[in-house]
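re: that complex we talked abt at group meeting.

here r the seqs, copy pasted straight from the sheet so there may be weird spacing, ignore it
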Amino acid sequence: MRSVLTTTFAALIVGVGSLASAGDIPSHPSELSFDELVFTPPLASEFRHELSSGVPVFMASSDEFPLVTITLSFKGGEYMEPEGKAGLAAMTGAMIRTGGSATMSPSDLDEEFDFMAANVSVSVGDRTASASINALTSNLDDAFGLFMDMVRNPRFDSERLEVLRGQQLEAIKTRDDDGLGIAIREMGFLMWGEDFFEARQPTKASLEGITVEDMKALHARIFNPSNLMVSVTGDFEESEMLAFLEDAFDDWTPGEASPDVPVPTHTFEPGVYYYEKDQPQTQVLIGHRSFERDDPNAIAIMVMNDILGGSGFTSRITNSVRTREGLAYTAGSVMRPRVEYPGVFMAYFFTKVPTTALATRLVFDEFKTIETELATPDEVETIANNIIETFPRRFESKAAMMGLFISDERTGRAPDYWQTYRDRVRSVTPEDVQRVAKAYLHPDEAVILVVGPWEQVKKGNAESEADASRVATMDEFFGGKATEIPQRDPETLEPKSED
Amino acid sequence: MRVLRTAAISAAAIMMIPASTAIAQNVQPIEYTLDNGMKFLLMPRDEQPNIITAGWIAPVGSVNERPGITGVSHLLEHLLFKGTDLIGTSDPELDEQYREQLTEVREKMRAYTLDVQYKRMYAGEIENPWDPANDTDELRALRAQMTELQELQSKITIKNEFDSIYTGNGGSGMNAGTSNDFTVFYINVPSNKLELWAWMESDRLMDPSMRELDAERFVVIEERRQRLEATATGKLDEQFDSMFWVASPYNWPVIGWMSDLMAYTEDEIFEYFETYYQPANLVGVIVGDFEVEEAKQLVDSYFGRLENKRPKADPVVTYAVPLLGEVRFSGECDCQDQVEVRYRSVPYGHPDEAVFDVMADLLNGRTGRLYKSLVEEQGIAASASASHRSQHYAGSFSFNARPKGNVDLATLEEAWYVELDRLKTEPVSDRELQKVKNGQAADTFRGLMDNSSLFFQLAITEGYGGYEYLNEHPKRIAAVTAEDIMRVANEYLRADARAVASYTRKGGTEEVMLTLDDVRASLPEEMVEMVIPGMESGLIEIAATTDVASLQKQIEDMEAQKDMVPPQFQTAMKFMKQQIERRIAELESEADGSTQEGGAQ
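got the structure back, here u go
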């Protein structure tokens, strides 16, 4: 298995003959020449094994350090939370980890893990859940035994539950302290609706209503072999590891597989929205729903977004808002497709209150430019080169590589996806970039969400800006109409009543 | 199901873990020093094929600054991404002319601002002397000149060329960081692009342009807003740091004071650069999939071009004076209530550093003392932790906690002093100490497992004086004894040399009305049934009382007993006090003949 990687490595020994000496250093790096980097992406099938029960196991060993990581990955997550139980998934994950096991109290179990220096984590995310252990090879056997007892028979200790619940209840009180947190939450509500799992937030009532029975039910649905794939990396011998896992999972009975992710039905009204907050800097998100991961244009869209705002300093929004105008430290855009339904596109920046409108205008100018003008071949080439040249990094760490294979198998990605990936990136043209910008960017149907002191945001920079062409107010977007999002009580997320 | 062997983990594990780490923790990079004094650490490693993490560190940070130029280390870090004489412009000659003219205008604006505008500020006429809104006619004219020059220059500027060259060649994760003590630059490049890295980095060290200085100033100001001013506790933390460090140059923020950010001149920046970024002061680090001989040739050719132009910089002169009493700082913010108790510890590499590290670990984590005591047993904290940080010239040790429910900060502070007393008076058990050492030993491996964390460990330790620390520190941790911990706690963590910060939520003085459920949640489980029925009948009595004086007497009694009530009953007492106060208000308003709705506003 490892031979694939070592052969690739052997093939790229660089010729020493081409080296510069002090006299012939070129005056620009474009004059440097480099040997070709040969990299063949490894195939998932080379790392994939199956237990007799059918559970897939992805393994890659390395003896550099005396540590082993075993990760159990399960299908299932927040989308399975019953109505009114927002926060259940995360709390269940935390309680499996901290609530003890059938044979050990929470504090004894923590004590053993800590004493053995085993790092153990459990989490239930939006679509998948995972339980992971990183332990010294020398005591893997003992540590993994405790770990499996915890994963299969969590105790959900009631004292630990109340501690956790107390922490969560404290944490939600601070939800409106951080402007960016508010912006992300409200954007989620606008894009997906408050009740859809992508955006749903725990409240005081939902946290208080979560019971041990709720957690046991969710645990049983998710943490069973029907949903399971395993990844193992670190210092071990493969056949021994397979036998070890076979033995450990031997009497673990499969349950019902988790259902598929539901599809959102919410629609939103484009326009300017604001959430009042007294702060010196505003957070601005400009977004709309986007595309599905397996869209035939997905790669061209990714290149387009990298040119627009997705690749740091090399992208246009960063260049304009940050480098040229000095209006923000953080500015850019992201495309987040989903496997099951269209995801979200978002441009973002944080700027001082009076320049909010000016920075928004600059971002809209960039939307317009990328839709109406061809990108230069250089821009497209720089982005394509970057994606192609950084491609090996996806396979750099063995743990990340196994994680990628598991996610690909779970989401039904074509087995040759990575083999042909670089050719598809290379084939994107400036015309493709413009075509997908027109088809997939919809600034007129976007939401502009501003968190900040609205009266000052609205009137813009007229008082501090001498250059009339740079004076901007929020009136120039969506005909000057803006919708106030009512202040929410951080604990209930209900609009605060006017006093 | 599989039989669990929990009982078997014991002595064997204790013996085993330290033994196995003693062999493995031995990081040996190849050292290579150029004729100009620039040192390189080369660490070939094929675990991550095709990738190299490369960078360099300058042991310079805010600690080397002075009032008037605070934050210049950080701004300089930003400016080193703005290109060189060759990179970032289509016309190097014309660009140089513009830069010279811009410098001239900038100097005039600065001189004028420091004179006229500062005087207007001190006279109370304007608030911010640097704000364009307060410009006089003279300044407005100068600013217009500057804008005109900037626009001309921008026509020949190739924006972010430095970044896009790397990006187009597969560079990723390019960044830099500035701390109080050092500045570090790094990037991941494909294995065949090491020469590109050498070209780019030696070029920016040789001829940086500091182009777009004025726009970048504003980027940093936005960064300051984002990190400090728009965060819940940022501005308060900055002032608390300032109070804590007294004379030491750690007393100003890495990002700099706002006044200074507006004021740097190009000369100041270049002088700083030439002093601290000369080759004899720098260390390059290359980790990953590369050939050592090739790398040596490359760094010779490229970094060998750099010259030492100025005398070696003086080390930092001003050292920390001890705290001579207790410093207290309280502030309000849009934040959860929180308390910090902070002490001076020891500089990096001091023999007691490892003792502080072990002590912090004893207190931290789910099996640590603070969680067990403050979060679980007493139920007074939502979170509690300790931290230790040894910096180049001084260190600090902190306790931090956030209350659970309505517990007040003084209660948390007291609970810390009780824990601290235990550290001072009771030797820690062998098992507890061994647990911390096992965790530290395993974590040293974990910190070496990928190229970039290995890069940072080598760069930072070398920047502080020598990578050998990576191999020495684990031995020092292994040697810490229970007596060391008691000695260090007594010597450094003293009541007469500490700083305490208490932050409360803005507007939090409006009292939240507690409910019986709050009381129930605040009590240890076994106490609930004992306490709640008594309180319920107490409530009935209060409701039946019409005698304001007797109610007031009860409140006075409660105030008098306040300090004797154990922490877990504080919420219960506060609840009763609120109920009595509400009853008094009711009775008084009835006496006024008006009616009033109860409840918090």
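couple things i noticed - Chain B touches chain A through 111 residues (CB under 8 Å). Chain B is about 50% helix and 15% strand.
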